[in-house]
Structure formats: C-alpha cells, structure tokens
Amino acid sequence: MRALLAEDDPRIAADVERALGVSGFRVERVSDGETAWFRGGTESYDLIVLDLNLPRLDGLTVLKRWRAEGCENPVLILTARGAWTERVEGIDAGADDYLPKPFRMEELIARARALVRRAGGRGTGQQQFGRLAVDLNRMTASLDGIPVQVTPLEFRLIAYLALNRDRVISPPELLEHLYGDDDAREANALEAVIARLRRKLGPGVIATRRGFGYHLDEAG
C-alpha cells in the first residue's frame, strides 16, 4: 500500500513514517504544502496523511485544491488538539478522517487501515480468495488455513491485489505501489516477486490477464 505523508515536524514525521512502514505501507514523505499538493494531485496513493499546519501552503488549502481538482485519494488530516474549528473545516473540505495531536501511533494505524479498507469497499481486514486468506490488519496470508511466510514486499503486493479485487492491476501501477521513488521500477523486478509468490501460493492464486496485468483468482 502506498502512502503520502505531509508533515513538517521531523520527529513526528519520522515516527509516523516508521509506524506506517512496519504496518505494510510504502511511505513517501514531504515537508511542505506545495510539494504535497503536487504529489497528491498527480499520483495515486492508497492513503494521504496530511498535517494542516504546513509551510509554503497550508494543509487546508492543499486539501481544497485536491478535491476541486478531482483528487479522490483517502486523506487523514492531523490537527492541533484544541483546534476543533480546523477539524470541522477539514471534514467540510473533503477529509475522510482526522486525528488530533498528540496521538498514539496505534490509533493512527487503525484509522489508516480503516480508510484504506473503506476506499476499497471492504468493511473488514479479513479477505478470502478461494483457498487464500489475507488479513490486512495482521499482515498475514494463509493457504487452506496454513500460514504462508511472505516478505513485507510480497505482502504489499498481495494486499494491493486484495484491496482491488474487482479489477486487473497493470504492471506499472503495481510497480508504483511496491517501490519507492529511489528504487528501480523494472518489470523484471515485479515478475520476480510474483514468481516467488506463485511458488509459495501455487500457480492458480495470482492470475495473469495477458496484455492487461494481474489479479487474485477467486477460484484459485
């Protein structure tokens, strides 16, 4: 799952990035509103965590611009605890949820996962695809009830296919959500991950639609 974090406080940003990272998100971090506006408006994210008090362009303005431009990425805003007016303005401007500072990372992760599930039309973290079960909360996969050991990268791929179970995902889109900007985004890297997963899950779970991309096979 791909997340954009817009936070100018280095300590908070580092803590949030670490918490999201160990929870299965591939995080891209920015520290000012103008960069956040550009990145969030031109790229696809499963989640955006947006601080409202950003330099160069405040978070509320960024959020309003995104929604006016048709950006539908799920947005969790971070606000000062006493600023209830900011929270109201943020929700009215199109935020999907808010979290007042200071906050516990466990709550942030729970809200982040809920937003991702909601955006994918899933009410629960438990997903079943024939013989394959995916737990988005515990970041685990099992086949016929037997746990399958997967790497964080492999789980991110399975999770993204699970959250988009109603469509075929193209290789460029999968690469974008699996790798950071500084990583190589080569088709053979994606094929290598899928090959490893197919050895672990069996050949019928991750299906290929030639010329289009990949999806989880409900009958696999």
UniProtKB/TrEMBL annotation:
DNA-binding region (UniProt annotation): 124-218
Positions bearing 4-aspartylphosphate: D51
Cellular component annotations (GO), alphabetically ordered: cytosol; protein-DNA complex
Residues in OmpR/PhoB-type domain copies: 124-218
GO biological process terms held by the UniProt record: regulation of DNA-templated transcription
InterPro entries for this protein: CheY-like_superfamily (IPR011006), OmpR/PhoB-type_DNA-bd (IPR001867), Sig_transdc_resp-reg_receiver (IPR001789), WalR-like (IPR039420), WH-like_DNA-bd_sf (IPR036388)
Start and end residues of each Response regulatory domain: 2-116
GO MF: phosphorelay response regulator activity; transcription cis-regulatory region binding
SMART domains reported in the protein's UniProt record: REC, Trans_reg_C
Coiled-coil ranges per UniProt: none
Name this polypeptide is given: Response regulator
